[in-house]
Protein: Gamma-glutamyl:cysteine ligase YbdK, ATP-grasp superfamily
Organism: Halobium palmae
Amino acid sequence: MSEDLASRVRTVLDVDAEEFQRAAEADADVVKSALRDGVFDNHQSIVGLEYEFYAVDDGRWADEAGADPSYSLMRVPRRLLELIGFEKELGLHNAEMMTSPQPFNPHGLRAQENEVLARLSTALDCTAAEGMRLVSDALWTIPPAGETARGYLTDSVVDDGVAIATNMSNADRYHAMANGRGADSFTVEAPHVDLTADTVMPESLITSIQPHYQMSHAADLPDFFNYAVRLAGPLLALGANSPFFPPDIYEDGVDPEAVLADGWDENRVAVFESVLNTATDEDKVSFPRDLESVEQAVDRVVEDETFVPMPVDRSGDRFDDDFATLRMKHGTYWRWVRPVFGGASRSAANARIEFRPIPAQPTVGDSIAFQAAFAGLMKSLTRREHPVVNQSWEAARENFYGAMRNGLDGGQRWITNDGQETTDLVAVYDDILAHAADGLKSAGCSAAEA
């Protein structure tokens, strides 16, 4: 398999970067023309969710041996991943569920939760036969049984000059990242952590939930986007839950008290940024600037540094195959809030916000609550023209990284409904959650549901 994969990676590396860029620029003109024609407009708001999981030992073998369960990472057999209908992610231990888009109303939100529960229940029935369960967490710290986290995350082979990560999914793009035009090493930068690999495999340490919100009118995308940028810090602070790394990737001899004192509350952000930003001249993963127009959203994808120019098949019959190269480039346009343009057909074409700050949460209920809160906030803040949109971008950015470092103690600044800036946590979240509930109620939810 490694030989075949190496051959496919070499094919990727042979793609002409300048030709790829020219094709992306031409695709941008297609999208902008469709935007002017109203193709991406819809009559209702839509919600969706990407939900990432780890596969871990379910403890069965430990129970039979009379030992304590370890809940160590496990590799998901590819046939099992196909059987349960989940998508492969970066590491062999990862699995991703993508929900069906639903109207933003009480029935749509319940449909989102029921779909997650139904598919997860079915998946758990299947994985149980392997002594495995799928769990939701932002940064799992227990490596596969009998292995170290360092070894699991850095193990690789070189096949005919191509570096292949041993425990990475066989997606060409993932492996091409380690063999392309960027750096030849990828480093996790966090307090007292010492981990460098020759592939992007350390990024598989982390998982997230990614709510999507599709607005009715694509021209309004910048308004929704700029509000989402200001929500990134406060919502991340609420969901921060990854303060620790696997023990063996800390610096040798580090004092545990120093780890506790200096560590950050949400290391998922640090892992994603540091691993991928060490490989490029520009910061590929970053906190996004405000948008002034929907056309600017398209231009930013085009202007972003190309990490891996990929072969593009333009022979499909989907609507968004008309801008397939731009879609491909968007796959490595990593921003904590990012615009998305797509659609299988012209009638299904849509513009939406993908909200990426939230780490994977411990329960389905927690995850759906974040999805619902984000959707409610998108609806309420824009409809009521909430003054927080006037908060400086610099303050919004500091909120985000303050939440990364210190969670709810990160010093969140917010402009409340009366136009006053506050750093009082109760006032900040009273205002945010009141508007989340307001948006949910305006979408048809009862006060109790909201």
